[in-house]
Amino acid sequence: MMRYSLVEDMRETLNCIEQDLLQFCQIISESRLMMARVFVLPPIHKGEELTPTPTIHVEQQLGNKARQLAVQHYAHLYLQQQSEKKSTRSATRLPGALCLNVTAQQQNSLTLLSERINQAKQYFQQLVTVDAELPAAARFPFVHQHFPGLLTLNVYRTLTVLPSVDSINFGWANKHVIKRLTPDDVIQTLEKSLSAKRARAPWTREEWAEKVQEELALIKALPADTKLKIKRPVKVQPIARVWQSDQQKQTQLACPNPLIVTCLEGETCPELGTLTDYDEANVTHRHKPDARPATLIIPRLWLWKED
């Protein structure tokens, strides 16, 4: 049973995030800008959340305009702050970086605030995904019942503040979510789906139950040691590759928000690369391990059987 104070905890955590974000954005707006480069991606409209994106056109913005877009982006937590045509289920992404010339006090404040905001964001995500004890499909309506228009994906996304680095380059990452399962795991999932007695458009409740029964029979007929896996493509993601020459180290980071680089007096601004348009047809994989041959047996679940 959901605990009584859960929604109040969510409300308090959101208030903390919003208050700290105000202060965080104010410091960014008041700091001396050395360089800023952000990449505006096309919006995802309602109903297009699952549409494949073989190409993505990037529009670059520089300087104060880039800083202004970044500050709006960090504080963008509600649907009311965006066009009505935009999807509520897809977070807005704004890859890029801001390089700020800061005092030691400003650097310390930005670092501490980002840590505090990120902890609150993680706690809010835990409240929704764990403490609420709701199945994944019920979380979206639950959050919107209590916080109309809240963009949970934007709330979850963490901020990255870096001390001076040498260079930042941008690119795209193509990934799959892979989860290995036994036939028994899948049987449990399908039986849960059956006992929920729900319909799935465009089927009636009876047709849907029949479909799940067929899937159950298919899995039950497999030997118990059959190797199954869910292999689901994730939408292509913008990434940043950060290089620190003193450590001879490159770090790859997801980059849905502009990174913030804090440079103290006398430190040089990192070299900022650009993000080119994404084109699936021209992707070159640096290292693509040979996948084991597998057969797709339940397409709606992205469930594969290893041959």
TrEMBL record:
Pfam families: Ter. Keywords: Cytoplasm, DNA replication, DNA-binding. InterPro entries: DNA_replication_term_site-bd (IPR008865), Tus_dom1 (IPR036381), Tus_sf (IPR036384). It comes from the Bacteria. NCBIfam families: rep_term_tus. This is DNA replication terminus site-binding protein. It comes from Rosenbergiella australiborealis. The gene is tus.
